[in-house]
Amino acid sequence: MTAVIAIEGLEVVFDRFRALKGVSLEVREGESYGLVGESGSGKSTLLRAITGLAPVSSGTITVNGKRLGKTRDKAFYREVQMVFQDPYGSLHPRQTVDRLLQEPLAIHGIADGEKRIERALDEVGLGKGFRFRYAHQLSGGQRQRVAIARALILEPSILLLDEPTSALDASVQAEVLNLLEEVRRRRKLTFLMVSHDLAIITHMCERLMVMQNGEAVETLTASQLIGHRVSADYTRNLLRASEGFVRV
Amino acid sequence: MSDTLLEVDDLRVTFPTRTGLVQAVRGVSFSLGRERLGIVGESGSGKSQTGRAIMGLTPPQAEVSAKKLNLDGIDLLSISPRERRALRGNRIAMILQDPKYSLDPVMSIGRQIVETLRTHEKVSKAEARERALAMLQAVQIRDPARVFDLYPHEVSGGMGQRAMIAMMLIAGPELMIADEPTSALDVTVQLDVLNILDKLVSERGMGLIFISHDLRLVSSFCDRVVVMYAGKVVEQIKASELRDARHPYTRGLLNCMPKIGFERHPLPVLDRKPEWAA
Fold it and tell me: What are the residue ranges spanned by the domains of chain A?
């Protein structure tokens, strides 16, 4: 198994604030890797640094054996796509689903657009009837399906998922998580997924990293977490919190 | 169970839209003593509109009707807006979801709390300040004097939510409506805030309506749960008996969340039946 994403000593600094303080991790091919932590722990910043949305001040990111520089080329985005947290904010409000899905195809000069759009919509469980609707005519779950379709349409090998279900109802969350698992299996994708919910991460990922204040707290396998074989107090706190409210 | 604090019978909230009338709440009935009641449902189930109707915060274009909407014997629908306003913040209070949006951004936290208190009670400025500081202490803010002068953007989400709880409790309400009070917070902070809320509610003998989409959280926090679907109550059940819930919707909500240590691939999803909404 080779590492498709290898990160070494990654630092991200916004003005004087160090959002990431030398984080290293390795994601293997075909693996689903989770990042957990509270807000401000730097988990989303890590994803954004990979896609080039956050400034890297030191450290290296290697994707598919290629070391990334300051900018990302088109070939990079054909391999790596991202799904954002808020389906209400990540779809253009004045573009139809069709137009939204055309955009990446146009940028990359892909010819068989018609087929790809049909296939992508089909794959995320939205019928043809959704193709000419606007985002405001869709529910939260349907919007997130469109966002996933948009990410899949370039047939990437790596998906970066930033809290893909935290804006959704529990019942819709289950549908979207199932969909993500299904496309991962079918397309043999590699996932790097961020969530604040330990239960979701253990459900979706084989390995995970717990983060706090821009640093890695520990790296675990899902089964270690399920068996409560954790060494850091912070992880233990998170585990306790995920069990729900207990009256003291 | 103690005496009834709030009685809701056949509550309906109707919104006029371009395509006709939309009933957001369709005949909701329940009663509440000095206990913790959870209202659970998905977005669009009418749970928040139910809370808002009790609070009297339904938008003006919408119509609220009910056979009975009584707070401690007062018919909330027949009193004047002025009387309703006097109740709000004084006898009924509401905690909203996100402190980032529900606190006044241009007013210091202390001033907002003092404002609530002085609206409902005749107290001197100095005394109001004292009580606000004591209240901030009660919601476990470590340095009340410092937080008193801070603005909402200068505090974290958890701290902001505590400040909101302080603001809501300062006039000593009998009924507290908490609409998703912890959904915007981190899991670890969530528990702190719930603990504070739990302690204050039981110490003061308030009635609490806890509105949330998270059935598991609600059932661990409340005594009783009302499950809503498409504007209607589909099931009312004691939180301790939730495992024996009969309605498929309630069972579906319980089952669909991933749980640590229970591997289920794929997750069970809700198979919505049209008759649930009937």
Answer: 3-90+152-218
